Amino acid sequence: MNELLIPQEGEYNPYYETYINWVKGKDLPKILLSQIEEVRIFFEKMGEEKSKLAYAEGKWSAKEVLGHITDTDRVMAYRALSIARGEQASLPGFDQDAYVQKALFNEVPLVRLLEEFEMTRYALVSMLRNIPESTYVNFGVANNVPVTVRALFNIIAGHTIHHMNILSERYV
């Protein structure tokens, strides 16, 4: 565990408190990497056909949840990179529902969605390990809220836990 990766109150939108608390003080790169196998095993057990189903009308399918996790990894990683590099411009939010709708995740083979998640996650962990530790505390603005680099990486890991909990409770 790297103490420098533990965000403090005021470094993120309070909305993300639960996500951060799930991983706070733990070995963040290890969690991010272990989620690759966790996600793969879950979806391989679920299978292609069941992963196209939603647990209720108007809810995302499991494949759409997986695609959303990957999209969010990318958006948060971009924010982290931008802030680590000193970006001063406010970074935009994103409409997760519009992203999922336009992505057509149910039309993409599950094996390719899993591969995309895995490759995205490896790139994310590589970035985390290679950006200067001094930038972990850099503040930027994303979606009109101040946030630090380290908070964003914690949010990524907690966001995956959040969705895997929902998938385990409602989709199996």
UniProtKB/TrEMBL annotation:
InterPro entries: DinB-like, DinB/YfiT-like
DinB-like domain sequence ranges: 37-166
Domain of life of the organism encoding this protein: Bacteria
Pfam families named in the record: DinB_2
Protein's recorded name: DinB family protein
Organism whose genome encodes this protein: Fontibacter flavus
